[in-house]
Amino acid sequence: MTTPALELRDAVRRFGPVVAVDGVSLSVAQGEFVTLLGPSGSGKTSTLRLIGGFEDLDSGEILIGGARIDHLPAYRRDTATIFQSGALFPHKTVAENVAYGLRMRKVAEPELGRRIAEALDIVRLKGFENRYPAQLSGGQKQRVALARSLAVRPAILLFDEPLSALDLSLRLQLRAEIKRLHDEIRFTAIYVTHDQGEAMAMSSRVAVMNSGRIEQIDAPETVFHAPASEFVYTFIGESCCLPVQVAASGIADKTGEALALTLEKPLAAGSCRIYVRPSRLKLEGEAGLLPNRLRARVQFVEFLGDVYRYHLKAGASELAADHPSAAGLSPGDLATVGWRSEHMKVFR
After folding, report:
1. 3-class DSSP string for 84-113
2. Residues 190, 158: contact at Cβ < 8 Å?
3. What proportions of the chain, in percent to the nearest 5, are helix, strand and coil?
4. HSE (CB half, 13 Å, CA atoms) of 154?
5. pLDDT at 85 exceeding the cut of 80
6. Residues 6+ positions from 210 with CB-CB distance below 8 Å
7. What pLDDT is attached to residue 146?
8. pLDDT by residue (tens digit) across 270-291?
9. What pLDDT, on the 0 to 100 scale, is given for residue 266?
10. Average pLDDT of every residue of the chain
11. Cα(266)–Cα(113) distance, rounded to whole angstroms?
């Protein structure tokens, strides 16, 4: 069996009464790009800091290449961290910034120069060697930070929300750049973000975290299409929730008001929550041909560029349906909304 590049075994980190990391176990193969995704306070950044040595374990183990490293200080771990700010030395040139980690590792001068040039070439900054951080754009600074980390060839690259401070266009460019580099070099990475688009686009696997634990870790497609829990489903992507009460007399909303709801597969009696993504809901003509249908009243309409989003209300529940063109519905109109059974999730 191949030794994992990184292992966490029942890792725990407490801050007083708060358990930030609650028994996290994780195994990362060589060359994998694993993203820790979750809302603020979910434990993703604390987990990254435990791996990098910026926080101490309260219990558990961390191994790199099969060897325990949780007792080692950060500078002795075979990791390199890319922070949100880039953390470049403002008084050093691009080349000097990239050289910093190499000098700390006492790399000989001839090899040092070759690795600086190689790292800058990889991130497409050849010719920028003598510039200072103040002369660079935000995206260029992050690419220098990436080059500095790649130059030391760490066993694990750690990304601490490196794109969150950038504007959208730069974020998308650098996201694609990091994905390209990973595909070419196959470095092993742990990436922390709250941005679902980043996680889905870049990762070999996504670990969705909540309250200090990993709720699900899978390929991006699996996390999106086959969520392991209601939290994962509601956190990943957009969703509409229809809380219902099922009884022999029919289906009502959470207040007891009857709903004009037709379902292909009957639901067991009791309370449950029906979820469908806005992109899966169909309106009017097409909706009437689908096996699951709901009558709802249009509240308002948004134009989102690619689609028109119809906000509707059925009983006490609000939902949204994306339509590729104007559906000829106005606020106050009654509309039929339909969906396929495989696009519906039910949680109790």
Report:
1. CCCCCCCCCCHHHHHHHHHHHCCCCHHHHH
2. yes
3. 30, 35, 35
4. 27
5. no
6. 38, 39, 42, 231, 235
7. 87
8. 999 999 999 999 998 888 899 9
9. 92
10. 93
11. 69
pLDDT value for 173: 84
Cβ count near 199 (within 10 Å): 25
Surface-to-core class of residue 319, CB atoms within 10 Å of its CB (0-12 exposed, 13-18 middle, 19+ buried): buried
| Beta-carbon-side half-sphere exposure of residue 145 (alpha carbons within 13 Å) | 28
Residue 306 token pair: 């690619």
Question: Does the pLDDT value for residue 1 go beyond 80?
Answer: no
CA dist 240 to 19, 268, 315, Å? 31, 21, 14
Tokens of 18: 């708060």
Rounded CA separation 90/134 (Å): 7
The full DSSP string for 238-264 is --EEEEEEEETTEEEETTS-B--EE-S
Tokens of residue 247, six digits: 């009884």
For residues 203-217, average pLDDT = 97
Rama region for 75: left / alpha / beta (φ>0; ψ in -120 to 50; rest): alpha
Cβ 148 vs Cβ 119: under 8 Å: yes
Q: For residue 264, give every residue at least 6 positions away whose Cβ sits within 8 Å of its Cβ, in sequence order, or none.
A: 291, 292, 341
Write out pLDDT tens, residues 36-69. Answer: 999 999 999 999 999 999 999 999 999 999 999 9
Rounded Cα distance, 146 and 253, in Å: 52
Using the structure block, give the residue that is written with the tokens 């708060």.
18
Q: Which of 11-15, 91-95, 161-165, 197-201 shows the lowest mean pLDDT across its residues?
A: 161-165
Q: How far apart are CA 100 and CA 259, in angstroms?
A: 65
